[in-house]
Amino acid sequence: MRGRWLGFAFSRTLTLACSRPVHRRRFSSATAAVAADATGVAVKKVTSSNFEPALEELRVRVREADFVAIDLEMTGITSAPWRDAFEFDRSDVRYLKVKDSAEKFAVVQFGVCPFRWDGAKGSFIAHPHNFYVFPRKELPVDGSSYEFLCQTTSIDFLARYQFDFNACIHEGISYLSRAQEAEALQTLSSAYKDEFNNSLYNLEEHVEIPLLSTADLLFTERMKNRFHQWCDKLIKSPAKNSPLEENSDSNKMQFQTVFFKMRPAVLLDGFSSHQLKLIQLVLRKHFKDLVYVRSVDENATWRKIVVYTDSEEDKASLRKEVQEDLLRNTEARVRSAVGFRHVIDLLTSEEKLIVGHNCFLDIAHIYCKFFGPLPSSMVEFALAVHKNFPRMIDTKHLLNSSHIIQYLMKRSSKSLSSAFSLLCPRVSSPSQHVASNSYVKVDVQADETGSSCFNSGAKHEAGYDAFMTGCVFAQACSHLGMKFELHSQSIDFSKNDKIKNYMNLLYPSWNSGTVIDLSTGIENPDSSYKRRYPQIVFSNIVLVWGFPSNIKPKDLKECVCKVFGPGSITSIFFLDSTAALIQFSKEELVNDFVILKYNLETNDDPISVLHPLAKLLEGGNTRAGNYETYRDICSSSVSKVLFVDQAEAVGISWKTKVENGSGKTQKFASNSEYMPGDGLPVVKQVTGKKNDPKRQSHHQVSCQDILDSLHASNSLLVKQVRIHDDVP
Fold first, then answer.
1. What Pfam family is a match for this entry (predicted)?
2. What span, in angstroms and rounded, lies between the C-alpha atoms of 541 and 538?
3. What is the pLDDT of residue 524?
4. CA-to-CA distance for 74 and 150, rounded, in angstroms?
């Protein structure tokens, strides 16, 4: 187990005592190859306080860019150890694990770095931006605050590289996905419509409010007099209207004359909800030219106003204006809450080439956080991503697939930092003199205006990692034969024959051994990948879990091979300490194994106790199923740390799942029970082959007895399965 997994529900009220000071550096020139110190380049730090101007500046940079590099920092990767990426994961299982990760963890930093080729300078101009992101609830809609998981190893990793958690939580930019935006518009519009329908009380008939107390009678009479005085002053001396105050029970209730929609009005302040209802009753009974209105101000606060109208037509006009105001206010509030998604909308609308490094999970996060719920299948996801980002490059795939780059890297690690150091020494180590002209020059432009927003970038900061990704891509293109110096202005990478072969090809995971084409949704083997395990045949795999904790891989292989032969198992892979995948050499051995397991568990005779599989079945909690069972468990949104607990949480109550020859499956419960509808009672006695009296003994059981009994049990069970399938 690599660590503990903790879930945090962050809400808007979460605060920290203080913010860690951030060291900033002002640059004296408009462009700089690197930051003034040796730790990195000038990366623009963007939080909620400077998001609006930074977004407008980014719009210009993206429109001018030839490509845009991106990188994300998340609060975790896997919600449980068994949800990690394995070679034994089929394509659909692999996607389910990526989907689970994107849905459960949060994005806390988003790096965006536009790159533009400047022919006059003979270099790329980069503009790295580091956005702090936090899923803050900004709209007053029903529902709980956002929740996400934090994996302690990931949080520790971020802290080790000086991640500013205070800036993230206090000043992180909130966002709405496109699906959340549509839902919020509908919800708020409906809520405002209800408020609007209730705001013009004197235009419709309403149920009378009984005046049961003397205080209510006195209050309504006093309000009637106040409104009469206000109307009289309004008519006689419209230019001399001044605030009128009403004091009652030491609470200050104020009538303040204002103008609302070019009409004289009284702003009500300091009244209770019950008193406001009494005021509406007074207006409805005694003042046909006064209208009670509830409107929303620029701070999203409801204002209570009494407006003077001079005709029925004016009332109708007022009603329409208030309704239009509420609609505009709703759209403005939701548009403001969209937040960081404006950056994603910018990238999709401009259709620039997007460059990432090993970025399949990053793209899943982007889709989940800023578009909507992730599709159910890998193919649907790939096509949906391609629709929004029609041109994408994964530099990890580019590095692994090019023999030229492989030679230059001398079989070094293909991690981003390693590739950056080896391929881009001119940028990664500016203090060292690099004489070769084969290296691409990259300048980082930091505007003098607002330069206090620029920090010295560092590795594992999203903005700086995006910068490194872009540099690696530019240098890789140069090694592939692209001649940037032949271009005086913008470069269209998608039309370059040397780059086309790598377009829209991503690794689903680092050990998948496949590449998925986003334009088609088709996943193909990766010829450059070297597998640790033999060729995997998923139909030959059985899933076993719940076995004793002292069972190790060698123990499991030994007890199974004693029954089915030394060459019966191709490979064994432990998902965690409680579950394993066993790949048999033949598909029929999968069913043979689970049927034998069932027979041994339903017979309590000495034969079962002495059987080689008895060690695996010890404790009575061992369960087995085919590969589809593994997929079904992975598809659940629940994530328990141990696989055995996950299977229980998913609701698996059977012990053995068998597939018969016709492709149908049977599920067998434990011991003296069987699953309703399965039609197969538990085998209590094994009959069939006649035992040899010479071999019978009250004190010992021979090997031949064991073999005869198992043969008879297997034959009987198969016969029962066939009979059951024939019953209409």
1. CAF1
2. 5
3. 93
4. 9
- Helix/strand/coil for 708: helix
Confidence class for position 86, pLDDT limits 50, 70, 90: very high
3-state secondary structure of 329: helix
Which parts of 261-324 are beta strand (E)?
Answer: 263-269, 290-296, 302-308
Residue 653 CA to residue 646 CA, distance in Å, equals: 12
Of the candidates 622, 507, 492, the residue with the CA atom closest to the CA atom of residue 555? 622
Q: For residues 600 and 668, what is the distance between their CA atoms, to the nearest angstrom? A: 13
Beta carbons of 68 and 62 less than 8 angstroms apart: yes
Cα(103)–Cα(634) distance, integer angstroms: 14
DSSP one-letter code for 71: E
Distance CA 684, CA 604 (A): 9
Backbone angles phi, psi at 175, to 5 degrees: -160, 160
- In this predicted structure, which of 359-368, 414-423, 614-623, 672-681 has the lowest mean pLDDT? 672-681
Structure-token pair, residue 561: 């091979």
For β-strands 244-248 and 251-260, DSSP reports them as antiparallel
Q: What is the mean pLDDT of residues 494-503?
A: 89
**pLDDT at 80 exceeding the cut of 80:** yes
Confidence of residue 40 (pLDDT cuts 50, 70, 90): low
How many other C-beta atoms lie within 10 A of the C-beta of residue 618?
14
C-alpha 389/C-alpha 285 separation (Å) is: 61
Dmax over Cα atoms in the chain, in whole Å? 127
Is 185:334 a contact under the CB 8 Å cutoff? yes
Residue 414 has which token pair? 């293909």
CA distance linking residue 477 with residue 438, whole number of Å? 11
pLDDT of 450 above 60: no
Half-sphere exposure of 262 (CA within 13 A, CB side): 6
* Closest to 468 in 3D by CA, of 36, 156, 115: 115
| Contact status, residue 173 vs residue 47, Cβ threshold 8 Å | yes
Contact yes or no for 585/569 (Cβ under 8 A): yes
Sheet order of strands, 514-517 included: 505-506, 514-517, 522-525
Q: Would you give the DSSP letter of residue 132? A: E
Cα(328)–Cα(297) distance, rounded to whole angstroms?
11
| Amino acid, res. 322 | V
The pair phi, psi for residue 248, each rounded to 5°, is -150, 125
Q: Helix or strand or coil: residue 300?
A: coil
Q: Is the pLDDT of residue 247 over 90?
A: no
Q: Please, which contacts does 156-159 make with residues 24 or more away whose CB atoms are closer than 8 Å? A: 157/460, 158/73, 158/108, 158/460
Q: How far is CA 45 from CA 65, 457, 482, 566, in A?
A: 20, 9, 32, 61
295 against 623, higher pLDDT: 623
Question: For the chain, how many residues are written?
Answer: 728
Q: Among 532, 627, 611, 599, which Cα is nearest to 564's?
A: 611
Half-sphere exposure of 363 (CA within 13 A, CB side): 33
Global pTM reads 0.79
3-state secondary structure of 370: helix
3-class SS at 239?
helix
**Mode of pairing for the β-strands spanning 392-394 and 353-356:** parallel
Rounded to an integer, what distance in angstroms lies between the CA atom of residue 370 and that of residue 159?
26
Q: Are 575 and 87 in contact (CB under 8 A)?
A: no
With a cut of 80, say whether residue 46 has pLDDT above it: yes
**Tell me: the pLDDT tens digits for 627-675?**
999 999 999 999 899 999 999 999 988 888 766 545 556 665 554 344 4
Tell me: the pLDDT tens digits for 342-358? 999 999 999 999 999 99
